[in-house]
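the two lines:
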Amino acid sequence: MIAPNTCPETCAPGTCAAERGHVVNSCKLCAPLGASLAYKGVKGCVPLVHGSQGCATYIRRYLISHFREPVDIASSNFSESSAVFGGLDNFHKAIDNIASQYSPELVGVASTCLSETIGDDLPMFVSEHRKARPDGPCLVCASTPSYHGTHMDGFHAVVKALVAALAAPGPKGKHVNIFPGFVSPADLRHLKDLLASFELPYVMVPDYSETLDGPNWDTYHRVPEGGVSLDALRLTGSALASIEFGSIPHCGLKGGVSAAEFLEQSFGVEAIRLPMPIGIDNTDALMKLLAKLSGASVPDAHRRERGRLVDAYVDSHKYLQGKRAAVFGDEDMVAALSDFLSEVGVEPILCASGGESGALEAAVSPKCPGALVLQGADHDAIDRACERLKPDLLVGSSRGYQCSRKLGIPLIRMGFPVHDRLGAQRIRHLGYTGAQELLDRVANALVEHKQNASPVGYKYI
Amino acid sequence: MATFLKEREKQVMTKGSDDHEIVCSKASLAGSVSQRACVFCGSRVVLYPIADAVHLVHGPIGCAAYTWDIRGSLSSGPELNRLSFSTDLREKDVIFGGEPKLHQTLLDLIAKYKPAAAFVYSTCIVGIIGDDVEAVCAKVTAETGVTVLAVQAEGFRGSKKDGYAAACGALAKLIGTRERKTSPHSINILGDFNLAGELWTLSEYYRRIGVEIVAKLTGDGRVDDIRSAHKAALNVVQCSGSMTHLAKHMRDKYGIPFLRVSYFGIEDMSAALYDTAKHFHSEEMMLKARKLVNDELSHLLPELKKYREALQGKKAAIYVGGAFKTISLIKALRVIGVKTVVAGSQTGDQDDYRLIRQLCDDGTVIVDDSNPVELSTFVRDLGVDVFIGGVKERPIAHKLGVGFCDHNHERKESLAGYEGMLNFAKEIYATIKSPVWRFTKSSGGLP
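prediction for all of em together
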């Protein structure tokens, strides 16, 4: 069996993975996965991973297992000679073959560790292809080598690349840009409803609410319906403001600026950053902002949702007060989930992420001053911290399952990936109603745990 | 089929209306959404089930993260293979070289986990930045006394099949390094990965006919058993695509003959046992094999009857990795009354496709290295009722309102041997007979 996990004394808490250099059971994925995901949120887009065949195939398998939808991602299928002589020929062929099979509006290209290491110049490839095929699909590319950052950096790099390539100047409109970050398709649909309820026109980037959680089909859709259109992306340059969710800087790779910051610098579109709207405080902040931007008051329906949520907080508080949670996953999600848990009396004692922005500690400390924050963590470090801290529950992806099984505590599945339950694409996190669902799931998991642990067999609890 | 890729024309044929041989064993086209993976994937698939070894992926994080504990290979003891180790190469390693990190990582992991051996998989950029992985492995072997084997698995160096060859190369280095006594009727099992404990079922069959198993390559595999694999009298090879390299190597080096088998379906499972008995020229073994097959069939056939009656005339599409599986599945489906109308694989060769062509009826589409655009078209045009494939094929079937059976390495259901045949029939029946398809066929007539 596996040797017992003991933390060597040389490995201080908080720096485990970083200090030992290697990773045991990763808590991050590579940048091209996030890039492909963001491209899936553009209408008529086929992502192209410029590298070896395995990159696209592994990413497809990983995303399909979470969303349970077809996820077509093309690959430029590097061979030994492309690795030696460069991937330009494969790039041209790949775009032509995608165009003939899929008739896409956009091919979204993501680089890989391989293409970056051999020095393939994607922006140059793109401009050459445009010259050779003026009638071809629109092309956007992002630099996403997997030796740099995480899947979230790849995601944000593509969001930024999309607006940088397409945003156009124009007279200031009444619409807002919304950059929600990596949330579920159900979350995206909720955000759209929310914006519609304020009668606020919007451009949401990315929008995979339909492409990765669509209805059944009569015929196979080579490119699924839905996504933000190229015309809408052009409008991001003339928006009233940009709303970017997340407490962690979305500078993409190599210290750039986020999509919202880019639009502010290039087009004077005000950039407004909010924490992911999970829990009451964070959602209140969003409601106030939407009211301000739209000039309308918060619709009554939302006030009632909020009221029901407060009522539910009260109903459940005795089950939750004083419980201790370990939260892990993508940094923005960890920060916002920790905010939510601390609102309902659950103390986040461990906040961990594979991300290495360096900003997680500052993001969680205001509400969770006592939490151990692990940045650049792997699941080996998270598991050992949990063995030491003995939380009552785990909140995060399916990758925490083995820890939950070992410690005999519930895992409430949120974020990504959820590969061992149905409905990952419909997990709600955002807004008052999202918090309502999270609250019920957390509280019920603890009630069930108590019920199962009791020898009495209460059916009334 | 106008929008299929023109260069792939010869990789698809319809039996009865096309005459050409299937063109196969070639690289996928740039820009195709191939269902194949890469060299790294091929090597990882073969070696992953060796449960008492450290499997270290040398490269940036992706390759290790996507292959952490995703396969259904079970171990009866250690489970070191379920941990995902990566050197997590960063930009500075790419610039200055990853050798120091690899060296230190191996020393740390060997000290901590005390593995029986370690495999180091090179991923794409390792070859490009020029790390001498062989040298580091040799150094660590000398320093620690634990065998560390390099697996050249850079993704771009060919296809998944080349990854199989790289894995077989690493296994070949282990074989022959430990002596032990074996019976004259001893075998190695090659190419079964103990998905859902299938190899345990097979081991029990072999035990019942008086055959000793020396090494399992690689399902529920152990390093020491593999070291002694050269002492077996026969290699029994399933999954010929992945393991034939090794079988040929052992034949040439140690004079061990090999038999090709498949454990899927009644016909192939029984042939595997009979062929083994025939090989050993043992009357006694043949009698035991006949008795085993009769015993098993006397339970199985009455059970299958109900499924055959219910499934008669249904149509299946098969698209899996290895062509040996396609071949077995065509036969297994026939036993339960299901006709194969699409038969394909990621990595089949000419012989495989010729055999598939022989087995199938006119009108069946035979395809090599297919993609979602093609597969979805076949499913729709040929009126398929059930698709047999892996995770990447599932949403194609489900979105089009067609049943699905997972026959890939992630599965958790045993589908090998006689009990596997029954499980297979049950699964095909369950998916085809589900009442949900009624709703996918119409929009409900809503006003």
